[in-house]
Amino acid sequence: MRLIIIGTGGMAKNQVDHFSQIDGVEIVGAVDTDVNRLAAFADKFNIEKRFLSLDEAIAWGDFDAATNVTPDRAHHPTTLPLLVAGKHVLCEKPLAENYEKALEMTEAAERAGVINMVNLTYRNVAPLQRAREMVIAGEIGTVKHVEASYLQSWLVSKAWGDWRSESTWLWRLSTGHGSNGVLGDIGIHILDFAAYGAATDIDHVFARLKTFNKAPGGQIGEYMLDANDSFTMSVDFANGALGVVHASRWATGHLNELKLRIYGERGGLEITHRPGESELRGCLGEDAESAIWTTIEVPPVPTNYQRFAEAVATGVPQDPNFRHAANLQKVLDLAMVTERERRELKV
Question: N or C: which end of the chain has fewer CB within 10 A?
Fold first, then answer.
């Protein structure tokens, strides 16, 4: 697979690290509108072809696939030309800023007949994959209740950088710079984590969003800090289960932690994922009587990057695809409506 990188920011570096370790993948080009950033990136990773516009890259055309690592707002206008050109695409999450644009991208990809995937990175968490298998196999019985949380602390610490002075973080706090806040940034991850692990789709949603004051006048330089910082959400799942999902950037002591608890009529599962460590625990069978939880060993699973490369090589689609990400975006969009209207909505 001859691959080009669209956007050369921090996540692009992470993707190059992953793709460069996969046999049969050659990174042949990079695209960015910032000439200095593009040069530094291409020099670091020894990428020969460099383009200041996507049109130039498509006109060159000597590539099979692209990974789209541009900011959220740019996913839609940059992915569509790639699909028209018949290129396979791995797109960063969220697929688009709203469901309408995400659906347009989905339908374009399906018309083009190309491999299309969204980099919901926590699909790489082996305990999540194993938990889903156990749920589908009926090992905990019918799922009745789900709890999911995604906790970050970068608004109360500088572990990832200083959000007060670094544009990398400031744009994520500003709707005017394309951010839908914590809901749009990491909400899509925890909703996917919950629904995928519990092996059922979200059917109804009611959400509360909160933006806290972070600076005098709610502004730092050109950035209006008006995007949501925390959300809580109650959901009904298609199988009848009830769920509670929440996320925050104010979670002191939690650098980047996802947790999922799945309770069935015959057992429970708990997945915890933090940087560098993941764990699956179960309370199953007779242990349910005495509430004994046991750690379940889980082998590694292929990453999204490996599965995308395999899909391009074999022509066999892999998940998570654009349609799945568009459906998640529909939930996020409706969550914002429920906040405004204070009512539950059906997905």
Answer: C
